[in-house]
Amino acid sequence: MNLEDPKTVALKMESPPAPSEPVTAVAALRTIRVARGLSLEDAAARLKFAPRVIDAFESERWDELPRGIGLRTLAKNYAKFLDVDFAALEPTLREHFDASQPKTGLAEHTSTRSLGDAVEKPASTGSTAWVILIVVVVAVVLGIALVQGIVPASMMPDWLKGQ
Hints:
single chain; mainly alpha
């Protein structure tokens, strides 16, 4: 075998370049998707998420992703789409599930956390009044219907027929 012969092709063995950064579990999902010949648009169409959202997920741009249950749903469905065990992926994403829940709103305000029983709850008598009003109106309408003979005798109870 002459290596200088143009008909002879040298066999080259190359290994893929070592990543400059450590590969994370989420970044491995992109590698799996590409290895299976699936485009970003294929994944987006199947998962019903925009391609930019899936790209942000694969690139770990957490600020561009949905929060809370939306992020969990995306991760779970994407793992299922690629036939990857979500249970193995979940521990690496757990900090982002929890961190994505914003700690805002009245319940987290410092002035209301320490009030406890000091906060008065308004009495809700409005619903009781409405129920009483409705019962009175129905009773009046039924009384008028009975007196006027609108209700057939077959529908009247026995205790009212005797009168």
